[in-house]
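Late entry, evening session. Most of the bench is empty. Finally got around to the prediction I had been postponing all week. Sequence below, unchanged from the version circulated by S.P.
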Amino acid sequence: MSSLTSSLSIASQALQAQELEIQVTNNNIANVNTAGYTRETVNLSEADPSQDGSVSVGNGVDIQGVQSVRDDLLTLRIQQQTSAQSSATAQVNALTQIESLFPTTGTSLSSTLSSFFSSVSALSADPSNTADRDTAIQNAQAVVGQFNSISSGLTGPSSALDTTVTTDVAQVNQLSSQAAGLNLELVQQQAAGQNTGTIGDQLSEVETQLANLTNIAVTHTSQGDSIVTGSGTPLVLGTQSYSLQTATGTDGHQHVLDSSGNDITSSITSGDLGGTLQVRDTQIPAILDSLDTLANQFATAFNAAQTQGYDQNGNAGTALFTIPSTVSGSAAGIALATTDPTAIAASSDGSSGSNGNVANLTAVQNATLASGSVTTQSANLVYQVGDLTSNATAQATAIGQSLTTLNNQQGSISGVSIDQESANLIQYQQAYEAAAKVVSTIQSLYETTINMIVTS
């Protein structure tokens, strides 16, 4: 009887195991199109055998639980690539707006400078021509307007990017709080011996969203997932979340602070937040520096050429442009010193018909200045912005392709295959039927044995 009882116990465990296998398989099939769902499997192990004399007798199967099929290393790589792609995309979006300030066709800084020098050159034919002088002054004002407008145009994106920083930080804090809450649920379900697959999927999705915003590192612990930024600043430790802050820095921009108030802006290198900071703190200042340098060197060189000649009234030439005392801010601060057309110093000897200084004035266009000629510098500005945009676009595309490959690999591991699950379902059904047949056989043996006892 004890042998039959053991066999019945083994068969009953087999029924429970196969029933759970069928249930989990059915759940996988039901969630085949559920975004973020991770395929689940039943974790079974051989029960410890019994020793009957010198014979070791198996005791069936033990159900260890249900687990989600994940590749943690692959998930880490996906999070890293997600952060990198978001950073590149943020840069592309911001730089595309800036690129419109430096068109390659139509009215641009290069074309406006060219028109100005052409109008100055026209004075060589008739230095006293009022219409030509008016045109030259108008074109000088257009150059000033271009510098001012582009400088202002670069300030606009910076302000918008400040708004993005505060928005991204708020989203990071919201997701961090959500992750801490999921960690609590995860710990509670683990303690109760419940399936944590759904909570694990939700936590993984939150971590992907965080990676989309900033560079993070995730560590699995007994208290749930610990999440820190690339610099080690904690966002989530177990069931506790730590909020980031934003504050206006000495540069007038929004800076990111950790929960203790330490400035961690420079350590945020990827994600939408990292890409935004890269454009705001590195790329725009570099472009603006090039623009300021051009404005300063152009105005300085042209003013110097003015002093080599005489205006239409026979007076010594004076500065046509005013600029700040420092290179920084030159594009925003450049202005006309005078709007009087007679102030253009075309004469080399003070006589009204002289055009000897026009050559000096027009030579500024292609003269070798500290950072290259006016023509070269204006062309380089267009190239600088275009190159930054092109590189960011290429990076976003390349990372996107890599991310697609990684997601496909993850899908092959964690995704649900209808064909495979259908095959598994048939296998588990057959195993269930076999176990049920064992139970039925044992029951029949019990009845036979009982009848033998009653009969005797």
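Two things to note before I forget:
The radius of gyration is 38 Å.
The mean pLDDT is 91.
Will write this up properly tomorrow.
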